[in-house]
Fold:
Amino acid sequence: MFKFLSILFIILLSACCKDHAEECPCYKDHQAPQYKGCEPGTIYDIDSNCSDSELLHQLASVVKYPHEALIDSVQGTVLVRFDIYEDGSIGNFTVVNDTLGHGLANAAIEAVMTLNKKGFCPARENCSPVVFTYTLPVKFVLQ
Structure:
């Protein structure tokens, strides 16, 4: 009887906890943040390879080419630096290079700010969430 109850408990425990698995588990001592743009139910661990592609897809879908840059055919890359906080939210946006002008820096920051909708799994040091400074290139290319 005890053996049967033990097996039943293990089955119930695994069934209940699979749905409640931690979305952002600690899987190594020093881990980089990951964008939470993957499909619902994704566990963001070492095998989650959709994070980067979904981040780029999100940026591409919201970035707006400023009218002034379109008229003058300005193209290039704007580097945006921001912090990813312990709770996965982002802030403290800074443009690293603003050599292009024409409103591209503001457009890049506005696009990066939309990443806050889904947020990030935070970076971790020894499994504790830490603030991480991230630099992201936002490319502006005319078609």
User: Anything to note?
Assistant: The chain has one domain: 24-140.
